Amino acid sequence: MFKLSAVLAPQRPEESLLALKDKIAYFKDVGLEGIEPSIPDPWRIDIKALRDMVDEYGLKVSAISTGLGYVWHGWSLSSGSEEVRKKAIEAIKKHIENAQELGAPVIIGLIRGYGEEPLEACMSRFKESLRECIAHAEDHGITLLIEPINRYETRLLNKVDDVIKLIKEMGSDKLRLMVDTYHMNIEERNIGVALMRSRKYLAYVHVADNNRLAPGYGHVDFKSIMGILKEMGYDSFLSLEILPFPDFRRAIRDGAIYLRMLMKLLSNKSS
User: Fold this and answer.
1) Could you tell me which of 30, 49, 40, 54 has the C-alpha nearest to residue 10?
2) What values do phi and psi take at 242, rounded to 5?
3) Which pLDDT does position 109 carry in this prediction?
4) Residue 238, CB-side half-sphere exposure with 13 Å CA sphere
């Protein structure tokens, strides 16, 4: 069955992930198997110390999130500024090297950029950047995960089919699809059908309800989604990327409890 993880992100640029040890311990306490560190600057983190801290609690780094590089630093793989684009490429390359130490894939989400006009030229720049990142990932044996993100946050690669088309074009087994139930709820006409189409490419799943809160706090049909994932043979991580409501600990706890309940129902159904 699935493994559970959650995003752990600093709340301000000067905050270190290494100062969040109590939250990592809490992940273990509520039964998570993984942690997804959100790393805004890959040059300013002690990867060995992070690995040791995660190992201390018997957890696994499920993936490395890179979006804060765009949110806080403005790095964009599709930027019309060559300086900005090159900085984003170098950041992803450094994330890949860090990922080799952690044994984790690297997510390419918001760091692709918003999508400047003209959009065709913007996508061309993104593909050029991505090819360079893929070559580095192949050299280091690391998988890159491309996430479809809703139209309100980016104009590039909003739907599952957009990313599948890109993966086919790039032609590398180190480029895979990840999905996020929050974005899918906005962009996909039928989440289940989109998931079935992703079978050959899917390697990672973000879970959040339609309001970006913990699963069970909104209207997304997680029982159906998880049933389809199970039928597809997906057995990797479901990673909680959620708002900290009513607070961080309760959000993580409630999300984990809800997903575990559904996993138990699915397990009982198949036995």
Assistant:
1) 40
2) -135, 160
3) 99
4) 30
Q: Which two tokens stand for residue 157?
A: 């690669």
Can you name the CATH fold of 3-270?
TIM Barrel (3.20.20)
Q: Give catalytic residues, as residue numbers.
A: 147, 241
Phi, psi values for residue 45, rounded to 5°: -145, 140
Question: Count of alpha carbons within 13 Å of 259, Cβ hemisphere only?
Answer: 29
Residue with tokens 């493994």: 3
Q: Which helix (H) or strand (E) holds 206?
A: strand 202-207
CA 89-205-42 angle, to 5 degrees, is 30
Does this model's pTM top 0.85? My answer is yes
User: Where exactly are the structural domains of the chain?
Assistant: 3-270
Q: What is the pLDDT of residues 139-193, one digit of tens each?
A: 999 999 999 999 999 999 999 999 999 999 999 999 999 999 999 999 999 999 9
Q: In 75-140, which ranges are E strands? A: 106-108
